[in-house]
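Example record for the data management plan.
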Amino acid sequence: MIGLVSTNYFSPRIIHGAGSINNLDEAIEVIQATSLFVLLSARTKKVLEKQFEQLASKGVSLHFYTDFQSEPTTDQLDRALGNFKQSEAQGILAIGGGTALDLAKALSVIAVNKTLTLGDIAQQGHLGKIPLIAVPTTAGTGSEVTKVTVITDTKLKRKLNPGHLALIPDIVLLDPELTLSMSPKITAETGLDALAHAIEAYVSTLASPISDVFALEAIRSIGKSIHTAYHEPQNLQARDDMLRGSMFAGLAFSNSSTNLAHATARPLGTRFSLPHGLSVALMHPYVISFGQGAAPDRYAAITEALGVESVLEFIEELNVLFELKKEVKKQLNLEELKASIPLLAEDALAGNGIATNRKLPTRKDITDIYQNLVTDLMGE
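Corresponding structural encoding:
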């Protein structure tokens, strides 16, 4: 590690704590915007009605946009871009889960660089952007602090995940009270996604002493609190641990990388319309089983941070507790999944996360991982 040179990027300002949503006016002053394009769900808009009324009373013009669903796509981005142009807003406020945050991040860059495509972002030098405030309402993606946005290309049916410094939000409001209404299902899926972010960041070939600090803290925070957050949804301390853990995991993988669990999960989610967190949680045990022998010291440190006997057994037990395989079997045809294994393997190899895996997988390795998943699902 001593000889490794790493460059790390962080959000300029993170405002954290219960009730920090009431610091929106402070955040808006920092980005010097008098009009905001507010990207959020209709439900969240209603929940935060009081805060929006207070902003309006202070002269802030708000243009609400709620026309998006589930996983972000290029079609949704195009619609958001058209609405943003009409609004003539000076800044963007995104409140929600990964869909809202990722759409807003892509929008903030594409709105300024009008001829730029998502596929071109990573190759660019300096990029201008619309100032962006990010407020997560789930504890999973860590998108509020990462330099990556994940958008499904509707035509290619493939997830694009370009990375660039300009995609990092300018200000983050981290308020655990906004996560209290998360259902047990969403708590489980997003929590396991965040844990996978941290574990993969730690075992990535691009891990550094700096990213390691965030990864291990995320693993500790999520590992000790995911059961409580699931069983006691109103436990504010557990919710805060999960939200901070998700953010730390985002900082970790944004500065190192995710790897094979995400590389195999992305095509599974895209081709079968499975939620991202569910797809990652489903694939993670198979990837750990495949690669843990290539990084025994790293997995030993993860085991210690979790305070368990085995990382693999811990993740598998959580998947059973949260009934993830039962959930997947409700949502897809297993024969169709089995027939799609060659396409899934091809998509996984074409995406990010293969080269940073400690143990480089071959096409056969990835095919076997999917086959093991199908065999287990059919045996349930």
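Summary line stored alongside the record: The first helix runs from residue 24 to 31.
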